[in-house]
């Protein structure tokens, strides 16, 4: 759907570089790439804004780490509306109760699929044995009791957060059920809960991967539906900014 990239260019013309340079994701990625961050990486949040605004979205489900990117989209929408008249809704964030899952190897940072440490991240398609291994190797501390103290005990608190997220239980209820368990045994409990949660999803992924023609059809139908929604909105944007 080329309208995404075309709108991103227009919105990029309304966005100043210092604002993008302040975004923490850019700073972190640039540091990990030895100061060789690309233009595409710098302007990616503007493309995210285009993805949202192109459909006149009013609410966006995001993780805590993406809140600042959504705030950029909000500011871009306001800037566009001020310049060209009220057009875009200013999108609001929808945050889940589990706002951020931390790395199993470094519970001070978020879990990321791009983490080079394979044991740091649990993937939905991981086998039960892989999930058990990753939780067994999860970094905790030298206190055996299971408690929830994100500042003082980030490792075990991360396990509690994950347990609550996959079971739908409250932190309080998870701690009640974990009473009497040491962290080594608790890691097994959390791993089993994650396995149970992911099992039907993993099975569905496996089934879908065996039917490539169906997947291609889903992608084609989705692109066509997105195009139908995006094209008239983008044409109106072109008219507003003076492209036609």
UniProtKB/TrEMBL annotation:
GO MF terms on file? Answer: ATP binding; tryptophan-tRNA ligase activity
* Regions that span the bilayer: none
Q: Which UniProt keywords apply?
A: Aminoacyl-tRNA synthetase, ATP-binding, Ligase, Nucleotide-binding, Protein biosynthesis
* Pfam families xrefs: tRNA-synt_1b (PF00579)
What domain of life does the native source organism fall in?
Answer: Eukaryota
- State the top-level EC class: ligase
On whether Disulfide bond is a keyword of this UniProt record, the answer is: no
Where does it localize? Mitochondrion
The chain's coiled-coil residues are: none
Q: Which Enzyme Commission numbers does its entry carry? A: 6.1.1.2
Q: Which GO terms describe its biological process?
A: mitochondrial tryptophanyl-tRNA aminoacylation
Q: What is this protein called?
A: tryptophan--tRNA ligase
Which family does the similarity line name?
Belongs to the class-I aminoacyl-tRNA synthetase family.
What InterPro entries does the entry give? aa-tRNA-synth_Ic, Rossmann-like_a/b/a_fold, Trp-tRNA-ligase, Trp-tRNA_synthetase
Its GO CC terms? Answer: mitochondrial matrix
């Amino acid at each position: 759907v080329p309208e995404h990239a075309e709108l991103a260019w227009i919105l990029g013309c309304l966005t100043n570089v210092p604002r993008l340079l302040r975004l923490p994701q850019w700073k972190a990625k640039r540091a990990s790439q030895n100061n060789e961050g690309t233009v595409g990486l710098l302007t990616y949040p503007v493309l995210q804004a285009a993805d949202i605004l192109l459909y006149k979205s009013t609410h966006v489900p995001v993780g805590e780490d993406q809140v600042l990117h959504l705030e950029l989209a909000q500011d871009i929408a306001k800037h566009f509306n001020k310049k060209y008249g009220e057009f875009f809704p200013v999108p609001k964030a929808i945050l889940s109760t589990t706002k951020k899952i931390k790395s199993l190897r470094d519970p001070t940072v978020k879990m990321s699929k791009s983490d080079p440490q394979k044991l740091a991240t649990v993937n939905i398609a991981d086998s039960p044995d892989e999930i058990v291994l990753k939780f067994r190797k999860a970094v905790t501390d030298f206190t055996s009791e299971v408690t929830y103290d994100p500042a003082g005990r980030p490792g075990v608190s991360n396990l509690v957060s994950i347990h609550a997220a996959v079971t739908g239980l409250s932190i309080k209820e998870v701690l009640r059920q974990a009473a009497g368990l040491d962290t080594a045994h608790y890691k097994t409990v959390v791993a089993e809960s994650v396995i149970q949660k992911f099992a039907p999803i993993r099975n569905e992924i496996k089934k879908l991967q065996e039917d490539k023609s169906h997947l291609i059809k889903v992608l084609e139908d989705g692109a066509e539906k997105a195009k139908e929604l995006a094209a008239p909105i983008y044409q109106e944007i072109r008219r507003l900014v003076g492209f036609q």
